[in-house]
Amino acid sequence: MDWRGFWMEVIVASLITGVFGVLVVLITNMFVDKRGYDKIDRKIGYINNETLTKQHENISNDISYNTKKLEKSQDKEFNRIYTKVDNIDKEIYSNKEKYQNLNLDQREIRNNLDKLLFQWQNLITENKELKKEVEVLKEQNNTLTIQNTKTQEINEKMYKQLLDLSEESRKQKQNLDLEVEDDWELEI
Q1: Cβ(107)–Cβ(99) under 8 Å?
Q2: In whole angstroms, what is the distance from residue 118 CA to residue 124 CA?
């Protein structure tokens, strides 16, 4: 048997296996790294490689754009609110004119109706507040009922334990009394 040939085959096989193993590890690591970078890219998103100055300019442009957009929206809202207020003023003016045409009895009736409506609205508001308070109190009542039930269960358990302990104590006292009597009879 030629030992030199045998060892050469072992060395060549080891080298091929080592090189193949290194290649497999490199390819696997490249695949895993690529998947990892893809996951990071999905979570972070696309990032421009820009300078800090460029990023500040972009942020400044975004702020100015959003400010202009907000101003336009505020102008629209202001105009909408102004129109509503103007309509309310017109309605109040027309009501005042109608009120001027009423005689004294009609004015008194209208004033009383206004007072009644105002009181009615106050009662409705107060009723809503009271309903909210009732709901809160019901919830507190339920919580206290549950706590009370738990406390009663605990008290019952403690009472049973106390009875058991007192019974056990009574039995121990009787046993001690018997032992003392036995000892006393033995001494006599």
Answers
A1: yes
A2: 10
29-38: long-range contacts at Cβ-Cβ below 8 A with a sequence spacing of 24 or more?
A: none
Rounded CA-CA distance 187/164 in Å is: 34
CB 70 within 8 A of CB 81: no
What does the DSSP 8-state code read for residue 15? Answer: H
Please write the tens of the pLDDT for every residue from 94-141: 777 777 777 777 778 878 888 998 899 999 999 999 999 999 999 999
Element (H, E) at 167: helix 104-187
DSSP string for residues in 68-106: HHHHHHHHHHHHHHHHHHHHHHHHHHHHHHHHHTS-HHH
59-71 residue pLDDT tens: 888 888 888 888 8
Q: Which two tokens stand for residue 1?
A: 């048997």
At 50, give phi and psi (nearest 5°): -115, 160
